Amino acid sequence: MDDAIREGFSVKALFDVPHFKDAVLLGGSAGLDSLISRINVMEVPDVIDWVRPGELLMTTGYPFKHDPGLLVPLIEQLAQKGVAALGVKTKRFFDQIPEAAIEAANRHGMPLIELPPGTTFSDVVREVMERVLISESKDLSILQGRVQGLSHVLLHGDGLPAFLTHLQAMIRNPVILLDPHNQRTASPDAEPLCRLVEESEWNKFRTDQMLETNVLQIGERSVRVHVAAVPDGQFRSYLLLILEDTTDYGTVDSLTVNWAGRLLGFEISNMQARKNIEVKYFDQFLQDWLAGRIVSVVDLRLRAEACGWPLADDASYMAGIVSFRERKPDVKALQELAKRLNWESVTRRCEVKWTVLEGELVALFTLRGEDSGDEARRQLTGSVWNFMRPMLQEKRASLCLGREAKSQGEVAGSYRDAKRTTDIRRVCQLKEETVRYGELGIYMLLYRLQGTEELEEFKRLYLHPLLELDRKQQGALLNTLRTYFECNCNAKETAEQMFLHYNTINYRLDRIKNELGLRLDDPETKLLLQLAIRSNDIQ
Question: Do 462 and 532 form a contact (C-beta atoms < 8 A)?
Fold first, then answer.
């Protein structure tokens, strides 16, 4: 029965209709299997604007009575529009169809039928449409059975693999469900084919989502793929891929896939609702772990396994906080950002979990053996910046990292270090993209001394003359001295860095020596002045 449905009412079946018993197929036999879905009558020359795919187009030939050769370009246009066949009644307005039109019909696979002079169009329309409607009613019947069968699979909780297996049996072609991360769930016939596909091949279905058909390179051969987006309400939807690998993809198959997409949308929405609850519990677990609210390692492991994240014994961890240099987004915006970062981390197979804790965007890095060493960790944070930077939308920020936690029980300590790093970055106005606790150096000491009388006296002793002179004369002596030290006391490099003449830098350095009464070539003096400059940066 299913095979009969696939055939529908074809152009070939027209010749079984009584009114077509004397009709003659002049050309375009390659299109005899085309299905007819409606009939249209053409008696105007601009009919091309009104035809639809699957139509049987009939004409008395009136539009071509002065120039039957106009049929040649029309046949090409009709073929491009997907018209099933063209029937022309001869003898009334011209005697015979030009040979060039027959050649065009053969060239484009467009059945060109010569209708007998006594053909009554109204009778033809009635008879043909009766057969089309009977065929379509059978299509609807088989479609209803398919939809009920697929619904039954989901209602009984058999899951997506069973759903795809049933769908494959119905349309007799392999089926693949592509999730937002390009992970595949495949029907039995599609599984071995997936193993032959390069990973980059799946990405083109995301970039060309407007295309309903595409081509998938499977090994050394190309397979036509029909693509249907699953309406699941997500930012990046699931895609249902039908590989036209076994048999032709018919009209009923297309309708079946449309309904299958809707049913999958309901199922995936339910799955997403369950996942959102799971994410909420995982988020709470991650916050409790970072904040040190889970006392027992046994409880920690049990909660991690309950959240679907069994902890590895050989892994270490490192907490980080994204510190915004200007206005920090509100908590709701941070939560949305954490959600997107978690999604991107999964997509890129980057072992980083994100949450919002104490009003801050917090990350927990899982470090494996391959991540050991400073260079490997810099590459890891660099890869995180690669996908985080565009999400910040030009907001300037620093990733402040705590010390590595060698055991699961030390994660709360790493988070406390990250918070301290964040405070020091803010107070000392550090501008590096990644700030590590172990590299804070003298800033950790200056942070501890902030606000003390001793630190204020230290700054007055070494910097007060320069600050007063800069304030009165709107000068840049302090900035010149800072740049001079950053350039390893090289006056020429300092001039290049500040886009000034070499003599100007030397003049300013002499002025600084005179105002401070200090030698800039003395190592101890250089150390004291650099400490004073950095302490002045603290707010």
Answer: yes
Residue 115 CB partners (closer than 8 Å, separation 6+): 20, 23, 58, 87, 88, 89, 90
Q: Is 371 helix (H, G, I), strand (E, B) or coil?
A: helix
**Residues near 53 by beta carbon (within 8 Å), at least 6 away in sequence:** 37, 81, 82, 83
- pLDDT of the residue at 6: 45
Average pLDDT, the chain: 87
Mapped onto helix, strand or coil, the DSSP state of residue 315 is: coil
Strand partners, 507: none
- Tell me the backbone φ, ψ of residue 220, rounded to 5 degrees: -100, 5
Cα angle value 146/252/183 (rounded, 5°) = 70
The answer to whether residues 360 and 425 touch, using CB atoms and an 8 Å cutoff, is no
Nearest to 198 by CA among 178, 213, 177, 220: 220
Enumerate domains of the chain plus CATH numbers.
2-134 (3.40.1390.20), 136-270 (3.30.450.270), 312-440 (3.30.310.50), 450-537 (1.10.10.2840)
Confidence of residue 119 (pLDDT cuts 50, 70, 90): confident
CA distances from 67 to 50, 86, 95, 97, 240 (A): 22, 17, 12, 11, 49
The amino acid occupying position 165 is T
Dihedral sign computed on CA atoms, order 48, 49, 53, 58? negative
Q: What is the DSSP string of 164-221?
A: HHHHHHHHTS-EEEE-TT--EEE-TTTHHHHTTS-HHHHHHHHHTTT-SEEEEEETTE
pLDDT digits (tens, 9 = 90+) for 22-78: 899 999 999 998 888 888 887 776 778 788 888 999 988 888 888 888 899 999 999
More confident residue, 362 or 346: 362
Say what the pTM is. Answer: 0.56
Report which secondary-structure segment, H or E, holds 322.
Answer: strand 316-324
- Alpha helices (H) in 68-120, listed in sequence order: 71-81, 99-108
- Is the separation of the CB atoms in 434 and 401 below 8 Å? yes
CA distance 415 to 436: 12
Residue whose tokens read 């070539």: 521
In order of 11, 353, 399, 424, the CA distances from 433 in angstroms are: 68, 19, 6, 14
Structure tokens at 516: 């401070």
The string of pLDDT tens digits covering residues 407-456 is 999 999 999 999 999 999 988 888 899 999 988 888 888 888 877 888 88
* The length of the chain, given as a count of residues: 539
Parallel/antiparallel/unpaired status of strands 352-357 and 316-324: unpaired
The mean per-residue pLDDT over the stretch 237-250 comes to 86
Relative orientation angle of helices 121-155 and 159-171, to the nearest 10 degrees? 150
Q: Tens digits of per-residue pLDDT, 159-189?
A: 899 999 999 999 999 999 998 888 899 999 9
* Side-chain-facing half-sphere of 154: CA atoms under 13 Å: 20
Bridge partners of residue 317, in order along the sequence = 366, 405
